[in-house]
Design a protein that fits this description.
Structural class: alpha/beta
Strand order of the largest sheet: 1-2-4-3-5-6-7-14-8-13
Strand content: 15-25%
CATH class of the largest domain: Alpha Beta
Shape: globular
Length: 459
Amino acid sequence: MAPTPLASSLSTPLLTAFAGAQAHHWPCASNSAPKVFLLFIPGNPGLSSYYVPYLSAVYQNPSLKGRIEILAVSHKGHAPLPPGVSEVFGSNRNLANRTSRGKEVSLRDQIRHKIEAVDAIRKAYPSKRQGATSSDHGLTPTDEEEVKLVLGSHSVGSYMATEVLKARPDSIDGIHCLFPTIAWIARSPNGRKLQLLFQPLAYTLLLSIPLLILSLVPVTLLLPVVSFLTRQSENSARTTIDLLVTKGAVRNALTMASEEMKQILSMREDTREAIERFTRNEEDKGRGKPFRAYFSNGDEDGWVPSWIRSQVEADLDLKKVKLPPGLERRLGKLPRRPSIAQDSPAPSSINGRRTRSYSLSEYRAGHARSIPGLRNAKATRKATGEIVIETTVDDNYETQDEDRPQRVSSPDHLDSSDTRHTATSSVSTIGLPHSFCLDHGEEMAIITSYWLAKDHLGH
């Protein structure tokens, strides 16, 4: 009788740490090395706990179960560390003290931290491309045994993933970006709306004292209040409390957000080149490696509206791909509950048309295309005196911005079974929010698992 894998008897995920940051680990539930190792990079505020239901569903997916190992690494200084020192992932106490004081937690620091995670994984599971002949597990990599290291990412974690790719191109076998904010963050609706919150004085003047008071309140009393105010599940509400009461965590998250606004602008040329090399189908190397991006439909996502999505698709030459109809039907049958954590409400859509709102000043400044159907448009005046116009447009209507390059990607959609292209973009047809991890992890897990199995297990 084959021995029972140790991981199958453990309660997963394992709460651990990596180089001074909270982490969650799902060991491979088999006696052999995994076929796929998924390193997940969160968005901001960057707590891996938010993604536990989603990643647990990926781990348990029938197409991946027993073949996958997962490590989700929080951003340094954004989450509490588990007690004690993990010998597997290194000492953390001194690093935790520094991060609580706002040291080594910049956006660039967080990227270096994720590069260290890639190096640690490849030390355990070497790649043939790195010239390794053995690993800490006593395995000799072959075409069948080599572990595929895939970067999963969400929001600004996708920007970090592209930076990791530039630093370690030979270590990565695939990248899966969920609602990626990799261009023009400051000019998104949410970026414009929240820019004052990301100023250094916001934490000092508005948040420091309330957060100090919250840190003194027992979690048992905070939990029902946070759950009620945010309508989050118990797991998400506990994670939100961890963020609020961890010394320096909110300040570090806001500081990193401020850096994102300033640094993540137009698509960088070295990013385009890195992804082109990564996904190129060269005759001497065979099929290119996959870069998959998943977006919200239209302007549902306040961080990645349609014009930013179109720009990213054009800049990275992403081919639009529809998920299989059977997968879409399966997703549509899952029970879903509304959440106020969504970045913006989904626009109504009837017979392929939806409501589009824009300010009169925006229209006059040339930030919108000519709007069809002005005969039925409605104009209202806000309390600020600004005039807002509402009209109906086609679902595929996209706003444009006057000072960005007007590059438009092909409108054609490919079938997901088309293997000629490994750089693809898929758009949500069931209204998943940018903050999917709070309420809709199971749906996203089905989508992620589909691509992981298709790209790396040949399913």
